Amino acid sequence: MALDNGIYIPHLCGLRESERPAASCRLCFVEVEGLPNPVTACTLPVSEGMIVHTRTPRVDRLVRTGFELLLSNHRLRCGKCEKNENCELQKIARERGLKLRLSRLRPLTTEVPVDESPKTFKYDPGRCVLCGMCVWVCHHQTKVGAIGFIRRGISRKVAAFGDVPLGESRCTECGECVRVCPVGALTFKEKFWGV
Amino acid sequence: MSATGTIIQTYESLKKAAVGKVEALKQKPLVLVGTATCGRAAGALNVLQTFRNEISCRNLDVEVKEVGCIGHCYAEPVVIIAKPGFPALCYGSVDEGMAGRLVVDFLINDDPCYEFAMAALEPNDQFPTFADFPRGVYEKKIILADCGLIDPEDIDHYLAHDGYAALAKALTMDPAEVLEEIKNSKLRGRGGAGFPTGLKWEACRNASGNQKYVICNADEGDPGAFMDRAILESNPHQVLEGLIIAAYTVGAGQGYIYVRAEYPLAVARIRTALEQAREKRLLGESILGSNFNFDIKIFQGSGAFVCGEETSLIASIEGFAGVPNHRPPYPAQAGLHRKPTVINNVKTLSYVPHIIRNGSGWFKSIGTPDSPGTAVFALAGKVVSTGLAEVPMGTTLRTLVYDVGNGIKEDKPFKAVQIGGPSGGCLPESALDLSIDFDSLQQAGAMMGSGGLVVLDEDDCMVEIARFFLDFTQKESCGKCTFCRLGTKQMLDILTEITEGRGKPEDIDLLWELAEDIKAGSLCGLGKTAPNPVLTTIRYFRHEYEAHIQEGRCPALMCKELISYAIIPEKCSKLCNVCIGSCPVEAIYTRDDMLKAIYLDKCVKCNSCMVACPPQYKAVVKVSPPIVEKGGS
């Protein structure tokens, strides 16, 4: 990926360790000479002599729409978020000159309760961007398999089996999911910082 | 040579026995009742029971058989009676009474009741055939040819109609020759996108690995589409034969039929067909005495629309949630269990036996050069003759709607056709002379899709139609990728606001921008095509969007928030009180002059009074924009 060479492409769901890219966040669009339409960089194997443009009007437009769509379903109010200043959404906004508020779209966020049941961390579905990295590490790295995706469409969310609070699930509170969360959906509780 | 000889011999003996059985059946009167789902919905099972009862209590020597759908769904229940000495006759809209009369008058007393007959099946000098009607002139039946005429639960009926001849022929050919024939035929996938079937098979055949799969995609989920269901219920062996030939060509040992669990009759009939095919060694170990082994399993999908998308379908069979994955790798390279897999639609596979039997040259002589063959449409909506129609590619929409479908109900003006289901688009009157093939529809912004064709008239609001289809795709979106999950929701919210009279002038442009981005940005085919109904309705019916937003008016008088009901005093009668009785909320009152009027604040716009008002008055009307009551009164 271009990231190794100091070129930033917005992304949320990409995991190097995963054998197959999820390709679900739809933010890493680039244009490749010879291909008619913008493609997601995460699914495109690099080949010799390939000419890639990371900033074109079409790419910028797609990234902007995708980003605004994610924001429309994201509990904003960054000032109150533990991930403030350390959030991938903020990073994308900074890199691409996008605003962290909605102008064109309707806000979809419904105020959903925060799951405070685990001792060491908390889970705010209202901030989740459904990148799936937490689900991947939980299944493939830690092999715990406590969380997965449930429901479909706009109701899709990350949850434990049966949608029980995480504290009542088989979650071992290893904290790996919290470490990969790019936004403020999974955050450590403050008193456990540094423990 | 000896292997070839065995295959041909085995097949010929199967066919000979089948022909003998079917010929014996023709010696006595035969009653065929169409009991596919469309027939059952219209009461075919009662009709079937009546025939059986009447015939048995009169001790008649008559055979009664269940068959599938002949495509004339508007006339269900359909019954065909073949009595020696008479042309085989087809009767439409048969009820129990008519069934009883047919038994007495025709089967006992030799009066064929021509007054009830729709058409004869073969040319004769007594009664016109289907080919003598406009629909018959423009139709060209290939994959529907035997539907409704053969018993789908008896393999011998299919065998007697040259069934499995193509399989026997293919088994004597080298798989490469079969592939060449399919490639030459230029057959394109009937699932919607129109990808060349031969190329798909070739990619899978050339992919490395010993284990390969073929899958029949019968996860038909478009609102208003029922072609695949009808084919599976009416002629399941045709699909099996196509799937077996596909497996032989690409070298697959295991096949699946991915069919919706909501199609119980189709599932039952496929299951019977599989058992019978295995019994006759047309499936299983060493098929027809050759060294080719292949078997088919049924996999029942649980009703997720997105599972019709091939990567989701594969995930679903593997036991995961039906969520799409990125392509490439294409299933032909790494599909089910990461093995090369061919996935074809029911209709695509149905063409295969015909192409192998009659040659690619014959297939290419039908249709257009780039889209050879026929197209099967499920005619629905405001068209007189709803049902299944199979016409050559290149037929115009006008022919399809007015000649095959017999025009619009109540002779109302044509407004649009919604073609291709939720992934397709709405085409206006100006597109009526468009010839229908994969490429022309794509250019017009619609899509062949799986073949649903909903005819719309002046009473259909195009904004509401777009909202309806988007509501469907939004609910059926799996939610994996950003654009489809959130983009369709945003568009749906905007459309809902417009139909409720809360639209803003900038909404149309925003819808257009979002639609283009969702098309370009989504992960799978569902999201990439979901905006089509919105894009085409804005493209061809922008004025309706503008009327909703700027004037608060719904031109089709369909959007509830934008209409009021009113009673025209000049048309209302003092002698009639029907509307008052029909109103569930007591919103209609009698004025001092004995005419009726509506309390607008009480009215819930249920339409009951409009239905109830006798046709000689027709005094209840809908008006848009809604009447605003003056303050104080």
Name its key features.
heterodimer; A: 195 residues; alpha+beta; Alpha-Beta Plaits; globular; B: 633 residues; alpha/beta; Glutaredoxin; Rossmann fold; five-stranded mixed beta sheet; 24 helices
Question: What low-confidence regions of chain B span 5 or more consecutive residues with pLDDT below 50?
Answer: none
State the shape of chain A: globular
Percent range of helical residues of chain B: 40-55%
- For the CA atoms, what is the radius of gyration of chain A? 17 Å
What is the CATH C-level name of the largest domain in chain B?
Alpha Beta
The major sheet of chain A is characterized as:
3 strands, antiparallel
Mean pLDDT of chain A: 91
What is the topology, as strand order, of the major beta sheet of chain B?
A: 2-1-3-4-5
What top-tier CATH class of the largest domain in chain A fits best? Answer: Alpha Beta
Helix content of chain A: 10-25%
Biggest sheet of chain A: strands side by side, in what order? Answer: 2-1-3
Assign the CATH architecture of the largest domain in chain A. Roll
User: What is the straight-line distance between the termini of chain B?
Assistant: 96 Å
Describe the structure.
The complex is a heterodimer of chains A (195) and B (633). By secondary structure, chain A is of the alpha+beta class. Chain A contains four helices and seven strands, in the order E-E-E-H-H-E-H-E-E-H-E. Chain A folds into two domains: 95 residues, Ubiquitin-like (UB roll) (Roll); 72 residues, Alpha-Beta Plaits, CATH 3.30.70. The longest helix of chain A is centred in the N-terminal third of the chain and has 16 residues. The termini of chain B are far apart. Chain B has 24 helices and 18 strands. Chain B has five domains: 109 residues, 3-Layer(aba) Sandwich (Glutaredoxin); 206 residues, NADH-ubiquinone oxidoreductase 51kDa subunit (Rossmann fold); 84 residues, Ubiquitin-like (UB roll) (Roll), CATH 3.10.20; 90 residues, de novo design (two linked rop proteins) (Up-down Bundle); 61 residues, Alpha-Beta Plaits, CATH 3.30.70.20. In chain B, helix 7 runs parallel beside helix 11. By secondary structure, chain B is an alpha/beta fold. Chain B is 41% helix and 14% strand. In chain B, strand 16 and strand 17 form a beta hairpin. The longest helix of chain B has 25 residues. Classes of the chains: A alpha+beta (195), B alpha/beta (633). The interface between A and B is medium-sized, with 35 and 32 residues.
